[in-house]
Amino acid sequence: MTPDDRRHMAHAVALSRRGLGRVWPNPSVGCVIVKDGVVVGRGFTAPGGRPHAEPQALAMAGAAARGATAYVTLEPCAHHGKTPPCANALVAAGVARVVSALEDPDPRVSGGGHAILRAAGIAVTTGVMEAEARSVQQGFLSRITTGRPLLTLKLALSVDGRIATADGESRWITGPEARARVHLMRASHDAVLVGGGTARADDPELTVRGLGIAHQPVRIVASTGLDLPRGGRFEAAMPQGPVWLPHGPAAPAEARAYWAGRGARLVPCAETVGGLDPDAMMQALGDAGLTRVFCEGGGAFAAALVQAGCVDRLEVFGAGLLLGDGGRAGLGALRYGPLAAAPRFELVDSRSVGRDVWHSHRRV
């Protein structure tokens, strides 16, 4: 890997981030085409997943693509779907070299795109900035390899780990800068998820607001019995975008009919002790095509997801606020035995956001 390879792949990785939250079930890919050291074309996966990054970059490059190098954050696809294979498009354009960050684990590709390129005499270099590209692609990779989407858990906590006062007041623990950051995180995920308890207590809209972004993620409320607030903010905001409702097999027929009649997509899930089975729910969301889900609580629901090993990333916003042991805990009870068995997450970033502190972790 040369310094130029890294520089151009960093450009492609930055482009790939632009599609996050808007391209599922497809991966968000970035592509940069370079000729004689000059960028002649670039693209990233379009909203809805098509067109892919490579044909957009090739269209921008035009004839300059012949003899050029293409930097792609994921192996070019090799299968005929709704669009022809991107590997074939690169061959037809006459590129001389392709540099990719990751091999695509999708069985329809899985080395096949690189094989098409090599068979055409194109030089292929792989593994350039693999870790950075893998971080962006984690949701897609998780869905392909495990069947479930990436799950990010957001917590907004007082210094002593509380999410609300004893009587449930929680607006606002963190400041406006932190809340704006959370809305940006919502926008970069396919869906926003809360439990039924949070929906009943807060009646949240779960929309992206204040950023000038028209696109809305899927809003998911997991409720075993579909006993959700009617006539409030959540229901009023339903026309703004898709609403999915995971529920248990015994959810009342009247509740199912009511929410289906309001346009919600019902997602039947198996139950376990205490509520919906977290693994079954996440598999159902993966089956439906989601790759990145952003969970905003509440405490018991979040604990169930942690306990089941479903949480991949933690985004924790800490406020300089003390609520005491009467406040509501940010996370419900966990059963893990000795300390060594407690769920562990690795700190990957930490910074100030307004008057608050933001810590980003990933599962070890």
UniProtKB/TrEMBL annotation:
Binds 1 zinc ion. InterPro entries: APOBEC/CMP_deaminase_Zn-bd (IPR016192), CMP_dCMP_dom (IPR002125), Cytidine_deaminase-like (IPR016193), DHFR-like_dom_sf (IPR024072), Eubact_RibD (IPR004794), RibDG_C (IPR002734), Riboflavin_Biosynth_HTPR (IPR050765). Keywords: Hydrolase, Metal-binding, Multifunctional enzyme, NADP, Oxidoreductase, Riboflavin biosynthesis, Zinc. This is Riboflavin biosynthesis protein RibD. Substrate binds at residues 170, 186, 206, 209, 296. GO terms for molecular function: 5-amino-6-(5-phosphoribosylamino)uracil reductase activity; diaminohydroxyphosphoribosylaminopyrimidine deaminase activity; zinc ion binding. The active site is at residue 54. NCBIfam families: eubact_ribD. PROSITE patterns: CYT_DCMP_DEAMINASES_1, CYT_DCMP_DEAMINASES_2. Its cofactor is Zn(2+). The keyword NADP applies. It catalyses: 5-amino-6-(5-phospho-D-ribitylamino)uracil + NADP(+) = 5-amino-6-(5-phospho-D-ribosylamino)uracil + NADPH + H(+); 2,5-diamino-6-hydroxy-4-(5-phosphoribosylamino)-pyrimidine + H2O + H(+) = 5-amino-6-(5-phospho-D-ribosylamino)uracil + NH4(+). It comes from the Bacteria. Residues 3-124 form the CMP/dCMP-type deaminase domain. In the C-terminal section; belongs to the HTP reductase family. NADP(+) binds at residues 156, 172, 198, 202, 224, 298-304. Gene3D superfamilies: Cytidine Deaminase, domain 2, Dihydrofolate Reductase, subunit A. GO terms for biological process: riboflavin biosynthetic process. Its EC number is 3.5.4.26, 1.1.1.193.
